[in-house]
Amino acid sequence: MFDALAALFLIVGVAGFGLGAHALGRASDVEAIYWLVVGIVGVRAAVAVARPAGGT
Amino acid sequence: MSQPAEQSPPVDEALASPPSKLRRPLALISSLGAVAQSVIPALYAWGVTVAPVAWARGAGVAPRICSVAALAVMGAALLVEAKRPRLSRPLLVWGFTACSLLTWVLAPVGLSVAKLDATRGFLGAAGWLMFAFSAAAPPIRRASGPGENGRIVPGPKLLPRTRVARGDGIILAAAFVCALGLQAIGWGVAVPERALLLRATTLVAGIAILGAATDIATLRHQVRKPARPAVRMARVWPSAALLILLALAAVAYALLRST
Fold this sequence. Notes:
Distance between the termini of chain A: 21 Å
Low-confidence stretches of chain A: none
Distance between the termini of chain B: 55 Å
Radius of gyration of chain A: 13 Å
Oligomer: heterodimer
Shape of chain B: flat
Structural class of chain B: mainly alpha
Low-confidence stretches of chain B: 1-18
Order of helices and strands of chain A: HH
Largest interface: A-B, 40 and 43 residues
Largest sheet of chain A: none
Number of domains of chain A: 1
Structural class of chain A: mainly alpha
Shape of chain A: elongated
Order of helices and strands of chain B: HHHHHHHHHH
Strand content of chain B: under 5%
Mean pLDDT of chain B: 78
Number of helices of chain B: 10
Strand content of chain A: under 5%
Number of helices of chain A: 2
Radius of gyration of chain B: 28 Å
Number of strands of chain B: 0
């Protein structure tokens, strides 16, 4: 279940980065920042949920 | 921690595995001499960067003579390799490079920015890099020691400690495709500063995606200290809350704009 959740968060992160880059290309800076933040948070959440314990 | 019992192949099975398709061309190359091995990338570099310049329209006779001389030097180095191995490598490296350089000097129009194709330039640079590497590196030889069984790499056969799990491969491949897909965005941006910012952003985002995918792939197998589901949920909760907050903000913004 946690692997699937991590994959879902990673997909959210990838989508965020993609939409952010697209918005950056259209010179929509606020929108780009929004989507890039979504991307960063998504990727961080994916790693956080995949980590089994506090340390390795 | 990884699971070696499940993932590592038995030694006997690995040793008895059939020879790969890669071994045959490698064996063929290893049977050649050092200069002959260097001639392969040299020919490629000549074909991509020297010949088009020398044989371009209006280049003149002198660059053509020099480009043919580069080929002749290559052939001479090959011929003398068996009898004069100490002479053949300097002949190839210095003779071939000097003739190529002379070709470019005598036909500078072929290298002008207006005529230089970016793809060809990149491929040519890669060709010269391969030539430099093969000329500087020792030749590949087949190992003939006891127990080495004519292998390309000397010493005992290297066995992988673990095999990459199937799921890990899929995760990494998907992340690689996503990171590569990001590089396809925004090539039509006209403003140079924005285009540069976009390239930097997509590059950093791609690295972040690859890093996260690698972490997920490796962390899946770490079962040293499994955390309780509640602990893992507590760890992910701030990020999830932030994502929900961002989604709500986007909805609120869209509603405000529509009214």
